Amino acid sequence: MAVAKPPVSPDGVFLRLSGITKTFGKFEALKSVALDVRRGEMVVFLGPSGCGKTTLLRIIAGLEAQDTGAIVQDGRDISRLPAIKRDYGIVFQSYALFPNLTIHDNVSYGLVNRRQGRAAIGERVRELLKLVGLPDSGSKFPAQLSGGQQQRIALARALATAPGLLLLDEPLSALDAIERVRLRGEIRALQQRLGVTTIMVTHDQEEALSMADRIVVMNAGCIEQVGTPREVYGTPATPFVADFVGKINVLPAVAEAGSQFRVGALSLAAARADVPPGTAVKLYLRPEDIGVHGNGSAPAGSFPAHIAKVEFLGAFCMVALSPDAVDVPALIANVPRQVADGIGFAAGQAVAVSVPAAALRVLG
User: Fold this and answer.
1) E strand or H helix that includes residue 24
2) How far is residue 197's CA from residue 122's CA, in Å, rounded to a whole number?
3) Pairing, β 361-363 against β 280-285
4) pLDDT given at position 316
5) Residues 71, 168 within the same domain
6) Residues of the chain with pLDDT under 50
7) 88, 111, 115, 140 — which has fewest CB within 10 A?
8) Phi, psi at residue 200, to the nearest 5°?
9) Are residues 205 and 319 in the same domain?
10) Which of helix, strand or coil describes residue 245?
11) Which domain covers residue 284, as residue numbers?
12) According to the model, what pLDDT value does residue 10 have?
């Protein structure tokens, strides 16, 4: 009896994960994870070590078997297919190139296994080496290339068979900082140019924010939030996301009438007004949203503070603030360099601090 294939999703979903669970002994690595990845988008799994992001990637690749749940790729149920029968290319953190093979032979490895003709393979390898910016490296060996160049070759090899899905397992973590920034831009530009559906695993927030169409923030085997980089950074859905993605000030508070919140001796206004008075909450505030003002320039609603410390960080200064009001926690503000230079911040200086209501994120 023939088994009907799942229909191609009409809403643009290329990969659908439903109820994925995985345990290792008594440890729950993944807890009923569900996710849709749209065709052509770049999704980044972001989270701390041990959160389950790499395990989930390996399950998608067929390198690990889920305990329960289903995986449907392009209308095809691949839940129990072996890795060799799945349609993907993968790039690992360690490059995983064959040291005894030339770059040409490394890139063509998957094509040879598919028994393509020599002329077609040669043309495809030349095309890919040009695509990753290393057109003259075919006769070299991996040891003759830099780390960044080796990772470009690993990317070319992953793309050689024109897979429907590209998987990237922390591909930049072994590179130095400058090469990492350069290569992440190249990978993103290449992904957009080819339109290949891509999933990347990283613990680097900056990589996730700069490369992703959508970020999947994971914690303790669960998905905490899925959203665009702006959504995840600007409107975190949970305290974990707020704490993990970017730097943030956390202020214990008690809700008052309307949209006011009591923080020590201060009363701060927030955009959210649906919290019953007397409810204990936490207010989350990004350092760049805090206004720091010199004498005579303080807007209405600001409160007095003293500068505890100033750190020059190039494009901005990180300013540690001690509010004068009783029981108000210290704050960290990021102030643009031009503003800091104009005011002339120094330790011990009296300033005024303003907090826009729209910038305060209220979470339980």
Assistant:
1) strand 13-24
2) 25
3) antiparallel
4) 94
5) yes
6) 1-8
7) 115
8) -125, 140
9) no
10) coil
11) 249-363
12) 53
Q: How many CB atoms lie within 10 A of CB 111?
A: 20
Structure tokens, 21? 């669970």
How far is Cα 255 from Cα 268, in angstroms, rounded to an integer?
10
- Per DSSP (E only), the strands in 248-299 are 249-255, 260-263, 266-269, 280-285, 291-293
Burial string for 209-240 (b: 16+ CB within 10 Å, else e) reads bebbbbbbbbbebbbbbbbebeebbeebbebb
**Amino acid present at 121:** I
Are the CB atoms for 305 and 324 separated by under 8 Å?
yes
Question: 344 to each of 176, 177, 311, 353, how far by Cα in Å?
Answer: 35, 31, 13, 15
Cβ proximity of 9 and 16 under 8 Å = yes
Are both 105 and 238 inside the same structural domain?
A: yes
Tell whether the torsion through CA atoms of 239, 242, 247 and 252 is positive or negative: negative
Main-chain phi, psi angles of 177, to 5 degrees: -60, -45
Q: What is the pLDDT of residues 159-176, one digit of tens each?
A: 999 999 999 999 999 899
Cα–Cα distance, 90 to 105 (Å, whole number): 17
Q: Do residues 202 and 166 both lie within one domain?
A: yes
pLDDT of residue 341: 86
Q: What pLDDT is recorded for position 364?
A: 74
What gap in Å lies between CA 151 and CA 351, rounded to an integer?
A: 49
Q: What pLDDT does 9 receive? A: 55
What confidence tens digit (pLDDT) does each residue in 100-123 have?
Answer: 999 999 999 988 877 778 899 999
Retrieve residue 359's tokens.
């910038």
The Cβ-side half-sphere exposure at 27, using a 13 Å CA radius, reads 8
- Cβ proximity of 109 and 157 under 8 Å: yes
Identity at 61, one-letter amino acid code: A
Q: From edge to edge, which strands make up the β-sheet containing 76-77?
A: 27-38, 13-24, 68-73, 76-77
CATH number for the domain that contains residue 287: 2.40.50.100
Q: Give the single-character DSSP code of 237.
A: S
Q: CA dihedral defined by 255, 258, 260, 262, rounded to 10 degrees?
A: -30
For the chain, what's the residue count? 364
